[in-house]
Specification:
alpha/beta, 11% strand, 8 strands, 11 helices, single chain, TIM Barrel, eight-stranded mixed sheet
């Protein structure tokens, strides 16, 4: 796979400083039951990288020491990590909101038949990938049969109260097709809600629109098709300075499956470590007693993806 990393490291993107840390985003490993074309992690069924129980326990210590409000679990399919349920239960006991970034199809995998019930029991916020409300577009990005399976999984979650009970939040994630930026989030959310309700009686709380990043699998596709420069021109020409203050990296850090720390999930994939005065590649255990507020953030050309148009983050548009 072609790699955009060398093209992204030198950038004129403006400097960004950290605010108070609020969210710990943890990648539990790259193992996944799917291989989606827009995946910036290059996850798939053949990946072996998984977070160990030792590192999971370090995550829990960090959550408590820094009084983190939100634990955002991602992957791969985070649920495929054998310590997923332990981490969810222990973090919940600390009063931390747990987000599971779920691809929905995992609910149909053998051995995961009771996963939805577990998530509901633990009051985990489910943020689920449904990159379009149209079957054709979903299957172009994620594979044949994924749309029907996703709709069935959403129905299963609704039946447990997700998207209907105030304590069980269900959010959906939209990713654009090809070189497009996401449309206005509020309008697209209204379309999703209307179409999914009318056609399938599906309810959910919010839609998050996320710009495709020019890294990993998507970045490799851009290079292979000679579209990298064109896509970067789109991102840069759509840059909005007003998005800088609400960038997710200002209040979030990303932890890889080995426990090393980055400013965001995208920097993790590019191997751009968090900037500290202690170590060039800090581990979670190096930061247990360090206040990161005011620290500089590692930036690159890909950061234009988060500031283009209405802005983009793991929580959706920065300017709704």
């Amino acid at each position: 796979m072609l790699d955009t990393r060398p093209l992204l490291l030198e950038s004129d993107f403006p400097p960004v400083q950290r605010a108070r840390l609020d969210t710990l985003q943890v990648n539990l490993g790259y193992l996944c039951n799917l291989s989606c074309t827009h995946c910036h992690v290059n996850a798939g069924p053949k990946r072996k990288e998984l977070m160990s129980r030792e590192v999971v326990d370090q995550v829990l210590v960090f959550l408590e020491k820094h009084r983190i409000n939100t634990l955002d679990l991602t992957g791969g399919a985070p649920e495929m990590n054998p310590h997923f349920r332990y981490l969810v239960e222990q973090a919940g006991a600390l009063g931390v909101e747990v987000i599971d970034r779920c691809n929905l199809m995992i609910l149909h995998e053998p051995g995961y038949e009771d996963l939805a019930e577990f998530l509901a029991r633990q009051k985990v916020t489910v943020t689920a990938s449904l990159p379009c409300y149209l079957e054709e577009n979903v299957e172009k990005q994620r594979g044949k049969g994924i749309y029907d399976g996703s709709i069935k999984a959403l129905g299963q979650l609704n039946a447990l109260g997700y998207g209907r009970d105030p304590d069980l939040k269900l959010n959906l994630v939209y990713n654009p097709i090809d070189l497009n930026l996401p449309p206005a989030q509020a309008g697209l959310e209204a379309d999703y809600k209307r179409i999914l309700k009318d056609n399938f009686d599906i309810d959910f709380n919010h839609l998050f629109t996320i710009t495709n990043m020019p890294i990993s699998r998507f970045g490799g596709m851009l290079l292979a098709k000679g579209l990298y420069s064109k896509y970067m021109d789109i991102l840069k020409s759509s840059y909005s300075e007003g998005n800088l203050d609400t960038l997710m990296c200002r209040t979030l850090i990303s932890v890889d499956y080995q426990g090393y720390v980055y400013d965001c999930d995208f920097n993790q994939m590019l191997k751009l470590p968090l900037i500290t005065s202690t170590k060039p590649r800090p581990h979670l255990t190096d930061l247990m007693n360090i206040n990161l507020e005011g620290a500089m953030i590692s930036v690159g050309e890909h950061c234009y993806g988060c500031t283009a148009g209405q802005g983009s983050s793991c929580g959706g548009a920065l300017n709704g």
